C-alpha cells in the first residue's frame, strides 16, 4: 500500500515509538499541538530529526488503502509462489532468495541471475517485451555519499552478488498469466527458452 509519501510505523516498544515520534518532527520533545494543549511554548531537541510528519490527505489515502491491504498481500503471496514454481521449473539457474514459506508481505520478487548472464542483457530483453524491472538494492558503499565517507571500503562478494540481482514485477493487479509471461521472457533472455502451459 502507499500513502504517496510518508507512511506508518508499528512498534511494540514505547521507547522506540517515542524516538520515532521525535525523529519525525525535527527531534523535538513536543509537537505544536502538545505545546498548545499544555500552554507551554518551550521544547528541547534531543536527537537529529527531520520533517516527516504526515498530513491529513496522505493519512486519508493510507486509511483507504489499508482496507485493501490483506487482500493485496494475499494476491502478492499467490503470485510470488507462482513465480517460484515457474522459475524452479523453467529457469533452474536463477535463484530466488529467501524461503518460500518465510513470513512475508511479498513486497518484492528479487532474483539472482547466473554468474554467466549479463544483467543488462536480461533487463533489455524484458524491457523489449514490455516488462519493467529494477534493482533492490544496490550496495551502499559505492554510492557517492558513502564512498566519500569511507573511500577505502571494498566488499567484493557483496558487489558480485549485487551485480546479479534483478527485481521482477510484482503487484496486486498482476495475474498468473502476467507472471508466466515474465518468466517466459526471463527464460528466453538467459537462454532457457520454454513455453508456459495452461495455468492449473
Describe this structure in words.
It is a single chain. With 200 residues, the protein is mainly alpha-helical. It folds into two domains: 53 residues, no CATH class; 121 residues, Aspartate Aminotransferase, domain 1, CATH 3.90.1150. It has eight helices and two strands. The chain has a two-stranded antiparallel sheet. The protein is globular and about 70 Å long. The two termini are 29 Å apart.
**Which band does the percent of strand residues land in?**
under 5%
Distance between the termini: 29 Å
Question: Which stretches are low in confidence, meaning pLDDT under 50 for 5 or more residues running?
Answer: none
Number of DSSP helices? 8
User: C-alpha Rg, in Å?
Assistant: 22 Å
Biggest sheet: strand arrangement:
1-2
Secondary structure class reads mainly alpha
Helix content range: 40-55%
In total, the number of domains comes to 2
Cα shape: globular
Largest sheet: 2 strands, antiparallel
* SS elements, strand count: 2
Order of H and E elements:
HHHHEHHHEH
Question: Brief overview, please?
Answer:
By secondary structure, this protein is mainly alpha-helical.
SSE topology sketch:
Blueprint: H1 14-24, H2 32-38, H3 56-66, H4 69-90, E1 109-112, H5 119-128, H6 144-149, H7 156-162, E2 165-168, H8 176-189
Antiparallel strand pairs: 1-2
Helix pairs in contact: 4-8, 5-8
Amino acid at each position: 500500500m502507499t500513502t504517496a509519501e510518508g507512511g506508518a510505523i508499528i512498534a511494540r516498544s514505547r521507547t522506540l515509538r517515542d524516538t520515532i515520534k521525535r525523529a519525525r518532527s525535527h527531534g523535538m520533545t513536543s509537537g505544536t499541538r502538545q505545546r498548545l494543549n499544555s500552554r507551554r511554548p518551550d521544547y528541547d531537541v534531543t536527537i537529529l530529526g527531520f520533517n516527516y510528519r504526515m498530513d491529513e490527505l496522505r493519512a486519508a489515502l493510507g486509511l483507504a488503502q489499508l482496507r485493501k491491504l490483506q487482500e493485496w498481500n494475499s494476491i502478492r503471496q499467490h503470485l510470488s509462489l507462482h513465480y517460484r514454481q515457474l522459475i524452479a521449473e523453467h529457469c533452474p539457474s536463477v535463484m530466488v532468495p529467501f524461503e518460500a514459506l518465510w513470513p512475508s508481505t511479498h513486497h518484492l520478487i528479487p532474483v539472482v541471475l547466473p554468474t554467466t548472464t549479463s544483467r543488462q542483457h536480461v533487463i533489455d530483453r524484458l524491457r523489449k517485451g514490455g516488462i519493467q524491472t529494477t534493482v533492490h538494492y544496490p550496495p551502499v558503499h559505492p554510492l557517492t555519499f558513502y564512498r566519500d565517507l569511507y573511500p577505502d571500503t571494498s566488499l567484493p562478494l557483496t558487489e558480485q552478488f549485487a551485480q546479479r540481482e534483478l527485481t521482477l514485477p510484482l503487484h496486486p493487479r498482476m495475474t498468473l498469466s502476467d507472471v508466466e509471461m515474465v518468466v517466459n521472457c526471463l527464460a528466453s533472455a538467459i537462454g532457457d527458452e520454454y513455453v508456459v502451459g495452461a495455468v492449473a
